[in-house]
Amino acid sequence: MSRGMSKCRITNAAPAARVSEATTFGDYAPSSRGSSEPDAMDPAIREKIKDHPCFSREAHLYFARMHLAVAPACNIQCNYCNRKYDCANESRPGVASHRLTPDQALRRAIAVANEVPQLSVVGIAGPGDACYDWMKTKATLIPIAREIPDVKLCISTNGLALPEHVDELVDMNVGHVTITINMVDPRIGTKIYPWIFYDGRRYNGIDASRILHERQMLGLEMLTERGILAKVNSVMIPGVNDEHLIEVNKWVKDRGAFMHNVMPLISERSHGTFYGLNGQRCPAPSELIALRDRLEGNTKVMRHCRQCRADAVGLLSDDRAHEFTLGQPPADETYDSGKRNAYRQLIERERRGQTLEESDAATPVSAPSDELFLIAVTTKGGGRVNEHFGHPQEMQIFSVCQKGIGLIGHLKIDPYCLGGWGEEATLNTIIDAFEGLDVLICSEIGKSPKNKLARRGVRATGAYDGSYIEQAIGALYRAVLHIEALATAI
Predict the structure, then answer these.
(1) For residues 306 and 391, what is the distance between their CA atoms, to the nearest angstrom?
(2) Distance between CA atoms of 100 and 95, rounded to whole angstroms?
């Protein structure tokens, strides 16, 4: 079935290199291991992450986040950032269509909480820096905590002004903070940050990077001491800090970071960033996967990041920001927790059901080879195979071998089935993007795309409709390795 490890490729957003072994993520235990990492996790930590989509891969299947773009001012300049650029279809940090006042943000948060039962987290991720534009951040989060008490609060920051506000974050019950840390060697920092503004003056060069580094480490240590979970984001910049991120990982782990998220540089020339205008290349998906694999085991590695906009709303895979415009929320709307409470009860039952069935997926695979396969899965969420092949805008990509099942990325695609009719040009583009995959698992697929995929060497099956993703992958893998007849499955 496999066409050979050296030839197969897979991506986050386009085909990339096949990894040599199954990968794991944080609170997600590979199904063939038979032991669950969450069991070893502190119960208090598990409670904090169980419904935070950015701190838990499992949670991102069920829960949504909301970013409020109330903090436009920033105290550093990054060579990969241009906050003036905005495209409605662009998913990139620092981008927002509208800046909100704290009052507008509260009204928007209430409207979203009433209409999006999956909402579990409200955060501020710019479009500047949440800690530097502190008065707006504080004026937003305090009333939200009062009016919507059952959401988690979080912020994202570059860390320069973070130490000044950690105690206030504790007082405001902000339980999660993301810090972007791209270097621990100020010499490398000079290639990333032209300047910073700190303590009333502007610094350039090595002085700027040294101050930023010291403040980031201090802020991370303060968060850890006070029990706030910290996630570190790092932008992978080939030839600048790609190898250096190994050292960054060691530093942030030693200072208590809960999770490390290595993101690919986005440097389109049209964005107008320094890197974009000067031809700095982005990492290949294979390079990103390889680096994440090297970091795995030192600390939890995030693999489900979508590099969200500063005004994102909804599940990570389904941004609904366009549904909630500035003119929609009435000033007198109040929060109604009914839908959200009902949804949470549903999810608890769903998770219990998945736990009861995990023993099937955890059955060890006994086979003469340890061949690895790459599998695309269509899903609407909930950790199940529940989406028609022609409908999704992305597919989850898993690797599977005897060592386990692991999420390795996402394949961005355009839905080709619109109004019951398939767009052939779009379908051909999707099939081209499937180069390197072995299997597609979906709820349903038409005869034409199934045959076209087969001619490319990709088997497609709708036999696992409604199954949990890991169970479906495990069952299919065992069938293949035991050379069982696949006619009923594919």
Answers:
(1) 19
(2) 13
Average pLDDT of the residues of the chain: 80
Residue 140 CA to residue 143 CA, distance in Å, equals 6
Peptide bond into 30 cis (omega under 30): no
88 burial class (0-12, 13-18, 19+ CB within 10 angstroms)?
exposed
Cα–Cα–Cα angle for 268, 128, 235, nearest 5°? 45
Angle at 93 between CA 145 and CA 430, to 5 degrees: 120
Task: Report the candidate in 3, 11, 135, 44 with the shortest Cα–Cα distance to residue 396.
Answer: 11
Top-confidence residue, 328 or 108: 108
Q: How confident is the model at residue 298, as a pLDDT? A: 66
> What DSSP letter does each residue of 197-257 carry, written as one string?
EETTEEEEHHHHHHHHHHHHHHHHHHHHHTT-EEEEEEEE-TTTTTTTHHHHHHHHHHTT-
- pLDDT number for residue 300: 87
More confident residue, 490 or 332: 332
Q: Which string of DSSP letters, residue by residue, matches 65-102?
A: EEE---B---SEE-TT--TT---TT---TT--S----H
Amino acid at 97: S
For residue 438, the 8-state DSSP code is -
Q: Rounded to 5 degrees, what are φ and ψ at 163?
A: -55, -30
User: pTM of the prediction?
Assistant: 0.76
pLDDT at 35 over 50: no
Calpha distance 138→161 (Å, rounded): 14
- Which among 450, 461, 453, 416 has a CA at the least distance from the CA of 431? 453
Structural element, H or E, at residue 407: strand 404-412
Distance (Å, whole) CA 171 – CA 321: 29
* 61 SS3 class: helix
Reported as type and span, the H/E element at residue 410 is strand 404-412
**String of DSSP letters for 363-384:** SPP--S----EEEEE--SSTTB
- Residues 6 or more apart whose Cβ sits within 8 Å of residue 77: 193, 194, 195, 196
User: Rounded to whole angstroms, how far apart are CA atoms 308 and 266?
Assistant: 12
Taking each helix axis from N to C end, the angle separating 338-361 and 469-481, rounded to the nearest 10 degrees, works out to 20
